[in-house]
C-alpha cells in the first residue's frame, strides 16, 4: 500500500465519481480505477460498489475512510513541519558559555550556524558556570554550555564530551621536560589557580585531596589568560583545559595522572522552557561539533600546537 492509494481512495470517497476524483488527483480515469482495484485487492475487501454509473462506498470503505483520512492528515502535517524546518530560521538566541569553550568551540559553532541561518541574532555571553545555571533558571538564557550543575538544580544537563585538564608551566620551569606528572608530585608546588567559586577549582580540590597533595596556591585569578600570563613570567604552574591554551612556544603542557582531572562539558537547558527553532538548531550543531571533539588528550593537543609554534615538544 502506498500513499497514492490513500489519496486516490479519499478522493473517490469524497466525490463518488471516477471522473471528478481523477481530475482532483490529476490522473486519468482508467489509472484511478486501476489503483482502486489494487487497493481493494491488497485489503481483501471491496471499498466501493459500482451500481450502473453510480459509485457507492461500502461498509468496509466507510470504516477504512476514517483511518485513511487520519493517517494522511498526520503525514501531510509531518511533511509540512519538515518544510517549515528547512525554511529560514529567524529570531534571537541567547547562549551562555564559560570562558574555556568561548575560545574556539563556541566560535566555530557560531560561524557554522550563522552561515546556515544568517537571519538569527545570536547573543553569546561568557559567564561563570554558576551564573549560567542561575540565568537559565531565571529564563534569561535559552541554553548554556558549561558543566553539570549542583545536584539540587532543576536544569537538564546533556554531556557533550570529556576533556582532560593539563598542567601548564613555562619552558624554564623545573617541570618543563616532564612527559607526565602525578598529582601527588604537585604537593607544595607554587601554583596559580581559579578561585574556589569555580566548578573547575572544586574539581581540582577533590583531585588534590584524593592524591594527598596540597599545592601552594600563590595566586588566584578568574581568567585563563591572566593565569597563563603569570605562568610565562614567574616559576609557577597552572591547571587548565587544553582548549583554553593558545599556541605559545614559551609554555609547556604536561598530562596529569593519578588521578587525571577530567571535566565533562555539556548542554544546559531549562526543561520548563520549550526550545524555539533556533535553539534546537544550535543545540544540534553543538552535538555534532562535540562528536569531533571527543576526548581532548593533553599529549595530542600539545604535539599539534608545538608544531604550530615551530618547535619540537619536549614532553610529547
UniProtKB/TrEMBL annotation:
Keyword Transcription: yes
Superkingdom per UniProt: Bacteria
Positions of the HTH lysR-type domain: 1-58
InterPro entries: HTH-type_LysR_regulators, LysR_HTH_N, LysR_subst-bd, WH-like_DNA-bd_sf, WH_DNA-bd_sf
Family affiliation: Belongs to the LysR transcriptional regulatory family.
PANTHER family, sorted: HTH-TYPE TRANSCRIPTIONAL REGULATOR YBHD
DNA-binding keyword on record: yes
A GO cellular component annotation in the UniProt record: cytosol
Keyword list, A-Z: DNA-binding, Transcription, Transcription regulation
GO MF assignments: DNA binding; DNA-binding transcription factor activity
Protein name: LysR family transcriptional regulator
Amino acid at each position: 500500500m502506498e500513499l497514492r492509494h490513500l489519496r486516490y481512495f479519499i478522493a473517490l470517497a469524497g466525490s463518488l465519481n471516477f471522473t471528478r476524483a481523477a481530475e482532483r488527483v490529476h490522473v486519468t480515469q482508467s489509472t484511478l480505477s486501476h489503483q482502486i482495484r489494487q487497493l481493494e485487492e491488497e485489503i481483501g475487501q471491496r471499498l466501493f460498489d459500482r451500481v450502473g454509473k453510480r459509485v457507492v462506498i461500502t461498509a468496509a470503505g466507510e470504516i477504512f475512510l476514517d483511518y485513511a483520512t487520519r493517517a494522511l492528515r498526520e503525514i501531510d502535517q509531518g511533511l509540512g513541519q519538515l518544510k517549515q524546518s528547512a525554511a529560514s530560521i529567524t529570531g534571537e538566541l541567547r547562549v551562555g558559555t564559560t570562558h574555556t569553550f568561548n575560545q574556539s568551540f563556541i566560535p566555530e559553532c557560531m560561524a557554522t550556524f550563522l552561515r546556515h541561518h544568517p537571519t538569527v541574532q545570536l547573543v553569546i555571553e561568557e559567564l561563570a558556570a554558576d551564573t549560567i545555571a542561575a540565568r537559565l533558571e531565571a529564563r534569561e538564557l535559552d541554553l548554556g554550555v558549561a558543566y553539570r550543575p549542583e545536584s539540587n538544580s532543576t536544569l537538564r544537563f546533556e554531556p557533550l564530551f570529556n576533556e582532560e585538564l593539563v598542567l601548564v608551566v613555562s619552558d624554564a620551569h623545573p617541570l618543563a621536560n616532564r612527559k607526565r606528572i602525578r598529582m601527588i608530585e604537585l604537593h607544595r608546588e607554587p601554583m596559580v589557580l581559579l578561585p574556589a567559586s569555580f566548578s573547575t577549582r572544586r574539581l581540582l580540590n577533590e583531585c588534590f585531596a584524593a592524591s594527598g597533595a596540597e599545592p601552594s596556591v600563590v595566586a588566584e585569578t578568574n581568567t585563563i589568560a591572566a593565569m597563563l600570563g603569570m605562568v610565562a613570567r614567574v616559576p609557577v604552574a597552572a591547571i587548565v583545559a587544553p582548549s583554553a591554551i593558545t599556541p605559545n612556544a614559551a609554555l609547556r603542557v604536561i598530562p596529569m595522572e593519578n588521578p587525571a582531572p577530567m571535566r565533562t562539558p555539556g548542554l544546559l537547558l531549562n526543561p520548563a522552557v520549550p526550545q524555539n527553532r533556533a535553539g534546537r538548531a544550535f543545540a544540534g550543531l553543538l552535538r555534532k561539533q562535540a562528536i569531533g571533539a571527543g576526548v581532548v588528550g593533553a599529549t595530542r593537543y600539545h604535539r599539534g600546537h608545538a608544531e604550530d609554534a615551530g618547535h619540537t615538544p619536549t614532553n610529547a
